[in-house]
Specification:
heterodimer; A: mainly alpha; MetI-like fold; 14 helices; 69% helix; disordered N terminus; B: alpha+beta; 6-stranded mixed β-sheet; 5-stranded mixed β-sheet; globular
């Protein structure tokens, strides 16, 4: 199964570069595709920076609760004493920034913004990763099936993709999220809102992944190694999942990495519109929603969740671009 | 309820330094600098100058301008420009605006039969815009259509249907075409109208101040479509109406000052623009493009901060009480809140100071401890569940925890309802959730739009039961400025209905029911007011309502507009009867 990869253009192109770098002739004997990709990735400074930021973000999100208690912060604790009761704006400069509240506090409540951004980070990432996983799973399976079997199967799946792509996603997401807020599937509150967001974002985004996988499969299935497998008596499922799928890992990884930031933005958009995460749970979109009502008098408040979203989305996009260049240089 | 009524007290915080200036701000004819809250103490920019266009704006679009098909305080106020009810409130500042005066009637009602029969004489010489005379039959018809044809005109309250004698089960003028109509309203001649009630009702003069008594000529009535072409009996008439966009009123040439001591007919034109964003209205008020925010609910949070930090802008604000209470209703039919101790624990646990800030601070209302707002006659100050704060401004929860232990519910999950399109209400609910978490109540919020809040969600007892709704965010203003008009719909067991319910606690206490019934039959005003205070105390003993704040509006007073006075009778809104414009 690894055999055909050796013959791909990617490897062939990559080798001379690698040779130039390698010093003595005895080390020439070989690098796996992974090693080559890693070498190429390492040289892309921007992508490496993106990767570092992403790793940091994931760490922060995973450890956000322990971090909060370590810093002694509570995202939902109101601080009346930090708010001007008449204007309901934070007291002090820059939205109430102080040693205790390095990013300031929010208007009306006086809740610590650092704690809320931290709390919002795991919400954003869990929704983005969950939704990406869901659309990748559906998209990959249906895409590879459509591409391999072609004919009627392909026609049915492809038209299904067209239907999904034609869906007014935002309106649909608003309708579903609004109608399910009472409780469904035995869930309610935050777990329900998270699952609804993951479902809505993931389920309606799979055709993008599906199309890419289908196109790749269409070209791969004509390759000699597939013919060989077939000649040796391999059947559909084996070829699909043991022969074709491993060769699709590259594009799948690349496009998942690019899907994550768009899902983060979508989650923020839904929460901004008030149909995503419900208060008092902190989320970046929800914070923006509140901040936009004060942008003239407390602009700093808008900057905090805005920058968090900006940095996260940028980091994921840079990482995704870097991965694409490393794994699939032809697409440069 | 949707109707908000009012009185303007003076916001100590916002006006402390400007009190003196405010008092003299009453006669400010030449547009000199006026002071904050001037319009809550006297008329600002008093002027008889005629001409010009007064521009109104509103952020949504009212379903109807038909005086017989509305429940909004601002349309009660605005509709008087083109529809004259039997009585109305005198344009006057603050609580002085609660004074009833005859409008279409030449004097107040004459009660007989111990308050069961009320007789009104109409002014002579009042004409519609087409020159035809207004008769008492038209008033009778207006009451019939607005109260007895609920499937055609459903938006207004139905007090007349509840209180008028109706043995024959009269079905309203659209179904019952008989000439006699409702037998309990008599019109012995063209200028006399007699109402026969089931029970004595001492505050009937207030009831007939509703626009539902404004005359409607039967020949011109088109049912629900009457809103498109209301036949004017007031000083202005419809020129054009584009639903959801714009309403233009022009002078009614048939109106005569001789038959109307209240109206002045100053501007040439009145234009109302609908569906303008609140932030745009706030900006337009400051730039002079708009003169009045029709809804009168006040500016948004950002504008509030801007107005209060700029002394020049602040001088043009009015901070008025609205005869309204913001509260959390505790559902006494949902576990564990069917137990008194559990409800009492909630009373102690909700951090009212934090809630006040999330509602916009003291400018938007002082912390409340009673069901009756401070500006309703009969209000008595008391606090059955006093809250203590420590040096760090944290609420002392000893009493709350004690009561919660006594109630024995332990860790509890419940749901709190709030209106999704009211940010302040959602913010207040958020604070309530946070407060209750500290005594072991885990509340989650469910938000629904205002338009369906009472018809489909909070006002449906079955829905609340099914969804474990223990707490409901609420704001209540009275239908007319008396204790009865305020309390009846939210406390009377008989007011509980299966949809559109406003007795959200589902309180059905025989003692309170009886007090309400006997109070309204009592013709002695002082005794009535005493009863209202007693009802208030009994309700707080039951702990079914957690009073949060006595609602206040913060309005920007356009320096261009004349005759502005914030009246208690209309939720602190400016009285719209004689607003003119400087040339």
């Amino acid at each position: 199964m690894t055999a055909p990869i050796e013959t791909t253009g990617a490897a062939a192109e990559a080798q001379p570069e690698a040779v130039l770098e390698g010093v003595p002739s005895k080390r020439i004997e070989g690098r796996s595709l992974g090693q080559i990709a890693w070498l190429r990735f390492k040289r892309d400074k921007v992508a490496v920076a993106g990767a570092i930021v992403v790793i940091l973000l994931v760490l922060i999100a995973a450890l956000s609760r322990p971090l909060q208690s370590l810093l002694g912060l509570d995202p939902n604790e109101p601080n009346q004493s930090l708010i001007d009761p008449n204007t309901t704006l934070p007291l002090g400069d820059f939205g109430g920034m102080s040693a205790d509240h390095p990013l300031g506090v929010d208007p009306k409540f006086g809740r610590d913004l650092l704690a809320r951004v931290l709390e919002g980070s795991w919400v954003s990432l869990i929704v983005a990763f969950g939704a990406t996983l869901l659309s990748v799973a559906i998209g990959t399976v249906l895409g590879v099936v459509a591409g391999y079997y072609r004919g009627r199967v392909d026609a049915v799946i492809s038209r299904m993709m067209d239907v999904f792509l034609a869906f007014p996603l935002l309106l649909f997401a608003i309708a579903i999220s609004a109608s399910l807020q009472g409780g469904a599937f035995g869930l309610e509150g935050l777990p329900l809102h998270l699952s609804v967001l993951i479902f809505v974002i993931g389920f309606f985004n799979w055709p993008y992944m599906g199309r890419i996988v289908r196109a790749q499969t269409l070209s791969l299935r004509e390759r000699e190694f597939v013919d060989a497998a077939r000649g040796m008596g391999a059947r559909g499922p084996f070829i699909l999942f043991r022969e074709l799928l491993p060769n699709l890992v590259g594009p799948i990884v690349v496009y998942s990495t690019l899907l994550i930031p768009s899902n983060i933005l979508f989650e923020a958009a839904l929460s901004f519109l008030g149909v995503g995460i419900q208060p008092p749970q902190a989320s970046w979109g929800g914070m923006l929603n509140q901040a936009v009502k004060y942008y003239e008098v407390d602009p700093q408040y808008m900057l905090v969740p805005g920058l968090a979203i900006f940095v996260t989305v940028l980091a994921f996009n840079l990482l995704g671009d870097g991965l694409r260049d490393a794994l699939d240089p032809r697409s440069r | 309820m949707r109707r908000s009524v009012p009185v303007a007290a003076i916001a100590a915080i916002s006006s402390a330094g400007l009190l003196l200036a405010g008092c003299s701000g009453g006669k400010d004819a030449n547009g000199g600098a006026s002071a904050a809250n001037a319009a809550t103490k006297g008329m600002v920019n008093t002027s008889d100058a005629k001409g010009g266009t007064v521009n109104y704006a509103i952020s949504d679009a009212p379903e109807s301008f038909d005086p017989g098909n509305t429940y909004y305080a601002f349309i009660y106020n605005f509709s008087r420009l083109y529809a004259r009810p039997l009585t109305t409130f005198k344009p006057a500042p603050g609580e002085k605006g609660n004074e009833l005066v005859p409008d279409l009637a030449e004097s107040m009602g004459k009660p007989s039969d111990g308050g069961k029969t009320w007789t009104y004489k109409l002014r002579k010489g009042v004409k519609y815009e087409d020159g035809k005379p207004v008769t008492s039959q038209d008033v009778k018809y207006a009451v019939e259509r607005s109260n007895f044809a609920r499937d055609t005109l459903s938006l207004g309250p139905n007090y007349f249907q509840q209180f008028l004698e109706n043995k024959d089960k009269y079905k309203g003028p659209y179904k019952d075409k008989s000439k006699a109509g409702l037998k309990s309203i008599e019109t012995p001649d063209d200028h006399t109208i007699v109402f026969h009630l089931k029970k004595p009702f001492a505050e009937f003069d207030y009831l007939v101040s509703a626009p539902q008594t404004a005359p409607v000529p039967q020949a011109k009535d088109k049912g629900a479509d009457y809103t498109k072409n209301v036949v004017s009996s007031g000083s202005y008439k419809f020129q054009s109406y584009q639903e959801g966009k714009q309403l233009t009123l022009v002078r009614n040439p048939q109106w005569s000052a001789k038959t109307d001591p209240l109206r002045k007919q100053l501007p040439d034109k009145i234009v109302l623009k609908m569906k303008v964003a609140q932030s745009t209205i706030d900006k337009d008020l400051q730039s002079g493009n708009t003169h009045i925010d029709l809804a009168g609910r006040g500016v948004d949070g950002q504008t509030q901060a801007q107005l209060l930090t700029d002394p020049k802008l602040k001088a043009n604000t009015d901070n008025a009480l609205g005869q309204r209470l913001v509260y959390t209703a505790i559902n006494s039919k949902v576990k564990p809140f069917d137990k008194l101790a559990c409800r009492q624990a909630v009373q102690y646990a909700i951090d009212k100071r934090a809630v006040q800030t999330s509602l916009g601070g003291p400018i938007r209302g002082d912390i409340a401890s009673t069901v009756l707002p401070t500006d309703i006659a009969g209000y008595q100050k008391f606090d059955m569940y006093p809250q203590k704060y420590d040096a760090k401004d944290k609420l002392d929860l000893t009493e709350a925890k004690k009561k919660w232990k006594e109630c024995g519910a332990g860790r509890t999950d419940t749901t709190i309802l709030a209106r999704s399109d009211r940010q302040d209400e959602v913010d207040a609910a958020t604070t309530v959730i946070d407060s209750l978490k500290k005594i072991g109540i885990n509340a989650k919020i469910q938000q629904y739009p205002t338009s369906k809040y009472f018809s489909d969600y909070a006002g449906v007892p079955k829905f609340n039961k099914k969804n474990n709704v223990g707490l409901i965010m609420m704001q209540w203003g009275s239908d007319f400025p008396t204790g009865y008009g305020y309390l009846q719909q939210i406390l009377n067991g008989k007011a509980i209905s299966q949809s559109g319910n406003t007795n959200l606690s589902e309180l059905d206490n025989p003692e309170i029911n009886k007090l309400l019934d006997t109070a309204i039959a009592n013709t002695d005003q002082a005794a009535r007011e005493k009863a209202y205070a007693e009802i208030d105390k009994k309700t707080m003993e039951q702990a079914v309502i957690v009073p949060l704040t006595y609602f206040k509006v913060l309005m920007y007073r356009s320096p261009e507009a004349t005759n502005l006075v914030s009246t208690s009778a209309f939720s602190g809104q400016y009285d719209y009867l004689n607003v003119g414009i400087k040339k």
